[in-house]
């Protein structure tokens, strides 16, 4: 199998279809909603959690069996039905229409995998095994969660602001590069892993001030 091409999709306002109403489907729905997607669920029955989301108008639920017309206007599809033949039909219909589709019980039938992801603010770290071992991906993600804690999200927010200031205010290309490299050197990363966010903030500001002076 050829290597996968990793991308980061912007799902804000995009219609995403989830076929299935069980626990796996519910987890997929939550992930899509976190990314700002407009989620449609099709299934004869759904979990209480999905029912609550539907009651709160956080998703659209069509009670019934999947049909090809459900794909109209859809950007991304997840096949999470508890019947293999339904997921296979979803995969086949999406392939004909060149739609992005993930089949949870048989990754090879879809055209993308969902990696295990660590999120710290705008920092996202994805782990994928190309569907060969989701359990291994989860274990590695759990290790990464311990290494890259909440301070990394706060650090990235400040770093993003200072980076824009450097780009606007520092004309010399070599100096600009040196300042940006000093902001993310190995000592800064070590301090972040230790949770010393205030010391990191001061180092960032110091790197910026010394570079400008």
Automatic annotation (TrEMBL):
Organism: Pelotomaculum schinkii
Keywords (A to Z) from UniProt: NAD, Oxidoreductase, Porphyrin biosynthesis
Signal peptide limits: none
Record carries keyword Oxidoreductase: yes
Domain called Siroheme synthase central: residue spans: 120-146
Gene3D superfamilies: NAD(P)-binding Rossmann-like Domain, SirC, precorrin-2 dehydrogenase, C-terminal helical domain-like
Domain of life: Bacteria
Protein name: precorrin-2 dehydrogenase
């Amino acid at each position: 199998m050829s290597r996968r091409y990793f991308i980061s999709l912007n799902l804000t306002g995009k219609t995403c279809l989830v076929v299935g109403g069980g626990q796996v489907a519910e987890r997929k729905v939550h992930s899509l909603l976190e990314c700002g997607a407009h989620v449609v669920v099709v299934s004869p029955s759904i979990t209480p959690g999905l029912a609550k989301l539907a009651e709160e108008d956080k998703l659209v639920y069509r009670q019934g069996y999947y049909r090809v017309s459900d794909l109209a206007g859809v950007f991304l599809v997840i096949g999470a039905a508890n019947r293999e033949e339904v997921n296979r039909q979803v995969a086949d219909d999406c392939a004909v229409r060149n739609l992005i589709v993930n089949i949870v019980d048989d990754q090879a039938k879809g055209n993308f995998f969902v990696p295990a992801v660590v999120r710290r603010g705008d920092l996202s770290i994805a782990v994928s095994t190309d569907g060969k071992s989701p359990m291994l991906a989860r274990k590695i993600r759990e290790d990464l969660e311990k290494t890259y804690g909440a301070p990394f999200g706060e650090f990235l927010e400040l770093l993003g602001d200072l980076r824009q200031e450097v780009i606007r205010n520092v004309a010399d290309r070599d100096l600009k590069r040196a300042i940006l490299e000093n902001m993310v050197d190995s000592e800064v990363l070590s301090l972040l892993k230790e949770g010393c966010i205030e010391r990191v903030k001061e180092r960032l500001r110091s790197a910026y001030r010394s570079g400008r002076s």
